[in-house]
Specification:
The protein has 353 residues and is an alpha+beta fold. 41% of the residues lie in helices and 18% in strands. It is built from eleven helices and ten strands. The strands form two sheets. A seven-stranded antiparallel beta sheet has the order 1-2-3-4-5-7-6. Helix 6 packs across helix 7, helix 6 packs across helix 8 and helix 9 packs antiparallel against helix 11. The longest helix has 21 residues. It is globular, with a radius of gyration of 21 Å.
């Protein structure tokens, strides 16, 4: 277990024209009625506490009466665009219950709570600055993880759907000790697969508070899944272990659970299963993945030192000489996916070129 250090201030990378065209092609780029900067004009705020009176690091913001009505109407329109076809017939039945702002981390998001006044059902979505790194992370999550992901980009604004689940740090502290042997075995298996998936797709900084545990009741037992919720550190860091959740001290309990539950043979089996599934997903998104990697290679999303360090480390790990020739993070990720596919049939690595 290592005390890995993340770059404290990852720069924000702008959406290039080529990436903008890609997003338009796949219906991610849609004109929105409100921008991130519009929400920064709040007049005041109060601290948001959890049920145990702990500071959540979120503040609830409020606006002057003149702007509030317009902002809330725009947010309800965003909700209809994100979750349906933008039909405004439902607007009278929607209410903006809260607008929260978080100053912690790189993205400084706004969290919007929308409630249906007819049945009191509610959901959240997030409004952030449109950073290219995060957009690449979201697209890769959509294509390479078991989960589809809904988001929209317009100019400098990014809209993300909410991922429901129990924050990993909270689950490890409060829920994991209460799980039975069978549940712990299932969680350990999911962590092995999650760790492998993050490493292959170069998603960094998966400390316990950057993913959630999603429990689903299935007949007489509960099924647990692990989902990433933070995509700021997509293909940025130079240290390879940043992309492997097992090396963060915040995940120590999960690593111990894996080592206590499985022998190496079982761990290797689950790694192979995840790699096989990743290849099948790649087959489904062959052309789309190639276009995304082309966009990623157009302008840098990391610095030269990080690229050089990462490609050297992965070369030492794989002994594949292609990594020595990589010029940017796009080349590294492309070669990582090609390296993955060489051991499987029915998919041609050249399709990612």
């Amino acid at each position: 277990m290592q005390d890995l250090k993340i770059s404290k201030r990852k720069p924000s990378y702008s959406i290039t024209p080529k990436l903008n065209d890609y997003l338009s092609e796949y219906n991610r780029n849609i004109k929105l009625p409100i921008f991130y900067d519009d929400l920064l004009r709040f007049q005041g705020s109060i601290v948001v506490y959890d049920k145990e009176d702990n500071d959540t690091l979120w503040i609830r913001v409020y606006y002057n009466e003149f702007e509030r009505e317009e902002i809330e109407l725009s947010l309800k329109k965003v909700y209809t665009i994100l979750h349906s076809d933008g039909n405004e017939n439902t607007l009278p039945f929607l209410n903006v219950d809260a607008i929260d702002y978080c100053t912690f981390g790189n993205s400084k998001p706004f969290r919007i709570k929308i409630r249906n006044i007819l049945n009191d059902n509610f959901t959240y979505f997030y409004i952030k600055v449109a950073d290219a790194s995060r957009v690449y992370g979201l697209e890769l999550e959509h294509m390479l993880s078991p989960y589809n992901f809904n988001f929209l980009v317009y100019d400098n604004t990014l809209i993300e759907e909410h991922i429901a689940g129990i924050p990993g740090d909270e689950f490890i502290k409060k829920f994991l000790p209460k799980c039975d042997k069978s549940e712990k075995s299932q969680i350990a298996k999911e962590f092995v697969k999650f760790n492998e998936r993050c490493m292959i797709r170069l998603l960094g900084d998966m400390r316990s508070y950057n993913y959630v545990i999603v429990p689903t009741h299935d007949f007489d037992h509960v099924v647990y899944k692990i989902r990433a919720i933070d995509f700021d550190q997509q293909s940025y860091e130079g240290k390879f272990n940043i992309y492997r959740p097992q090396f963060f001290k915040e995940n120590l309990k999960m690593v111990e659970l894996v080592s206590e539950t499985f022998q190496k043979l079982s761990i290797d089996q689950y790694k192979i299963e995840e790699r096989s599934i990743l290849v099948k997903r790649l087959k489904s998104y062959n052309n789309r993945m190639g276009k995304l990697l082309d966009c990623m290679g157009e302008e840098p999303i990391s610095n030269e030192d990080n690229v050089n360090l990462l490609k050297k480390t992965i070369y030492d790990y794989t002994h594949d000489k292609k990594f020595k020739k990589c010029k940017n993070m796009s080349d590294i990720l492309r070669n990582a996916l090609e390296f993955l596919t060489h051991n499987y049939e029915n998919i041609n690595p050249k399709n990612f070129r």
